[in-house]
Amino acid sequence: MRACIAFAVILLTMACAGWARAEDGYDLWLRYRPLPPAQMKLYGGRASQLVLAADTPTQRATRDELQRGLSGLLGRDIPLTQTVLHDGAIVVGTAASSPLIARLHWDTRNLGSEGYLIRSAVIDGHAATAIVGNSDIGALYGAFRFLRLLQTGQHIDRLDLHDAPHLTLRVLDHWDYLNGQVERGYAGASIWDWWKLPDWRDPRYTDYARANASIGINGSVLNDVAGGATILTPTYLQKVAALADVFRPYGIRVYLSIRFSAPIEIGGLKTADPLDPQVRAWWRAKADEIYRLIPDFGGFLVKANSEGQPGPADYGRTHADGANVLADALAPHGGVVMWRAFVYSQANPEDRAKQAYDAFKPLDGQFRANVLVQVKNGPIDFQPREPFHPLFGAMPKTPLMMEFEITKEYLGFATHLVYLGPVYEEVLSSDTMTHGKGSTVAKVIDGSLEGHRLTGMAGDANIGTDRDWCGSDFNQANWYVFGRLAWNPSQSSRTIAEEWVRMTFSNDDAFVKPVVDMMMGSREAAVDYMTPLGLVHLMGPGHHYGPAPWDASEAEADWRPVYYHRADKQGIGFDRTRSGSDAAAQYAPPVAAQFSDIQQTPERFLLYFHHVPWDYRMRSGQTLWYELVAHYAQGVEDVKRMRETWRGLHGYVDEQRYQQTASFLAIQEKEAQWWRDACIAYFQSISGQPLPPGYAPPEHSLKYYQSLSFPYVPGFSSW
Ligand code: GCV
Fold it and tell me: pLDDT > 90: what percent of the chain?
């Protein structure tokens, strides 16, 4: 009897605490768990039957998703019918696929080929909801939006909304190798099982496609930019074609990273010179071969003449020469080239931050119409914070696409909770001033500023074979926010965080608000405990794990942290004004003037642009040294607060996801403390300044931090 009472008490406690079944994160934001009864009742009458054709693969995918989503959320099956029988019908499709929709005569011209509208309407005398696109894909996107309305607890009566993507190419770049390793991957191995493809098509590929389609991602570059040429051999192209088949119903095209020297390596030619007629013919034949297998193949992504990769400069040719030979091969089939501007060379003594601009700006206007130049968000390399890349707005005749890093190479790998929405938003909303005030980076990449129709955004994926796909539940938010911003780069990252939290965890406001606040503050916390006040690249050599501001072990100067912070007895920071490398001058004059003037430079970029004396007075009235220490300490305090926030939310989510997040936050606090202590110990050894009163000394000696070594860091090995 006592046991029974105890059991009942446990059950009651779990019910009161909102206990939920353990979840492993596999479902991502497409969880479709039963809604609270009141909401279910409210929605029930408005979702009673599904009217849609299921004649094409995309229509079938749309039907399956709506049935899966609605039955999960509403707790009952929704019948599929051909006509509207009663109130609550959901009519989905295009004017071409649905006579009911054709009869509505709605103007859908502003939706383009991927947009949708969702409207409450009376159809055949019954209250209904119509989800309409100009294409099946548009209707599929609309279906996902409709499900999101339910998942996030919004009303679904009197609907009249429409949306269409602002960018043409919304692409994930996978840094996956054919041997299963993922460069900078912290979520397991590559999800592409190349060995078993094309015969075995893992169901996970379909779930990957569903997740991407739900946020509007329409392209996937399957392999690493530094991979070999094997992917272009007939055997591997069969495998690529199998993936393309799985993705096609979801509107996702496949792209491949190519190795510029492929004509030599797998083509048997003596050269890969882009102006050589045999090389040109080889690429044309290769493109023809690919399109025979994959008629909607997207195109090529290229990393050339950077970090050891071959490229046109090996033959004295320009990046435009290199891109154009590929573009010419792809053009007859409608393919594009995404040519990366992440180009620097150790042979070039110029400040690394300047090299991409120097190499590409003079080529503006020389690329074929089907080439996009893919530019990382900042001039260095996905640091916790960098100013926007000076190429944005500087190449008006060339479509520039954005490259963001979703995998947290420089931001604590899988375990640190760092929501990247604010990183992306900060860059996208930066004003380049290249065409007057309001020339934001978002307007450069959506084409509106310079009149480009071919536009795009790429995200270096954080996806692997881990059950939760991304190495942690909160890392899923970074995949999500990337997709949502690629759809519309002017959205607010806070709004996106909120919808993600509601779909991924809970609609309970008592949970949503603190979690969104925690996510929004998480990036600034990481900047503070890693690289405050404009510092960059202080991470461990090569693997980029943990602090190593002292490190000068790398063979190449611009891979060494000491290259970036330049701390000496007098001060710290990289002088990028006229008295230094003058990288600031690469920005439009008003921005260059701001960054060149220490008084006007925002303090968050201070040490990126200036070498500043330790006793320099900051806006707070404190010295730079004091502020540096204060920021490092603040970062740790912020993580402590994040832990407290999460502790207070026990019971709102299932135990499995709660516990993993709690444990990862504990790791984050430990590592934030390590960052703080190691950096303060090192910079103090250079500045010779006493620790400001009230700040605890580092836990260990500088020697101790310098002695740590990490031979088996994930995401980095001998590929
Ligand atoms: C794919 C940085 C990363 C590399 C990455 C490179 C790139 O250097 O550390 O792992 O390689 O950027 O974007 O090409």
Answer: 94
Distance 593 CA to ligand 1 centre (A): 31
pLDDT category of residue 20 using cuts at 50, 70 and 90 = low
531, 428 Cβ separation under 8 angstroms: no
160-163: strand order across its sheet: 80-81, 49-52, 89-93, 126-133, 116-123, 160-163
Q: Which member of 27, 409, 425, 638 is catalytic?
A: 409
Type of residue found at 657: R
Residues comprising the chain, all counted: 719
Q: Is 381 a catalytic residue?
A: yes
Domain 169-494: top CATH class: alpha beta
SS3 string of 416-476? CCCCCHHHHHHHHCCECCECECCCEHHHHHCCCCCCCCCCEEEEECCCCCCCCCCCCHHHH
The alpha carbon of residue 327 and the mean position of all alpha carbons in its chain are separated, in whole angstroms, by 26
What radius of gyration, in Å, describes the C-alpha atoms of the chain?
A: 26
| Residue where the block lists tokens 């509208």 | 117
Backbone angles phi, psi at 703, to 5 degrees: -55, -40
- State the first-to-last Cα distance of the chain, in angstroms, to the nearest integer: 62
Spell out the CATH class of 28-163. alpha beta
Q: What is the residue extent of each domain of the chain?
A: 28-163, 169-494, 528-574+611-707
Q: What percent of the chain has pLDDT over 70?
A: 97
Nearest CA to ligand 1 atom 7: 342
Q: Is 627 a catalytic residue?
A: no
Q: E strand or H helix at 562, and its extent?
A: helix 561-565
Q: Which residues, 6+ apart, have CB-to-CB distance to 203 below 8 Å?
A: none
Mean pLDDT of 111-133: 97
326-371 tens-digit pLDDT = 999 999 999 999 999 999 998 999 999 999 999 999 999 999 999 9
Whether the Cβ atoms of residue 142 and residue 118 lie closer than 8 Å to each other = yes
- CB neighbours of residue 611 within 10 Å: 20
Catalytic residue list contains 307: yes
Pocket of ligand 1 (CB under 6 A): 175, 183-184, 225-226, 303, 307, 342, 381, 409
Q: Rounded to whole angstroms, how far apart are CA atoms 567 and 582? A: 19
Burial of 326 (0-12, 13-18, 19+ CB in 10 A): buried
Residue range 143-159: mean pLDDT, rounded = 97
Whether 226 contacts 303, CB under 8 Å? yes
- For residue range 379-428, list pLDDT tens digits in order: 999 999 999 999 999 999 999 999 999 999 999 999 999 999 999 999 99
Written out in words, the top-level CATH class of the domain with range 528-574+611-707 is alpha beta
- Index of the ligand 1 atom closest to the CA of residue 403: 13
